[in-house]
Amino acid sequence: MHEEREMERIGVFFRNLWKDERGEVAIEYGLLVALVALALIVVFNLFGTEVQAFFNKITGRIATCPESGGCQ
After folding, report:
1. Is the pTM of this model over 0.70?
2. How far is Cα 28 from Cα 20, in angstroms, rounded to an integer?
3. What does the pLDDT look like over 33-55, one tens digit per residue?
4. CA 2 and chain centroid, separation
5. 64: helix, coil or strand?
6. Beta-carbon contacts of residue 65 (< 8 Å; ≥ 6 apart)
């Protein structure tokens, strides 16, 4: 009798655990963040040198703005 009640309690525990949706949204957001990070890694690996050249061009222009009297 005691074993049957214990098995029933274990079964109820696992059924409730299976139906529990708390934390599901957090996991989905975590997967979404991981997917975005992976996409950024791929993009930077494919276009890394172009992106670096673009930012170097911008920083070069910013550095010469005060000397030239204005930025264009």
Report:
1. no
2. 15
3. 999 999 999 988 898 888 889 98
4. 48
5. helix
6. 71
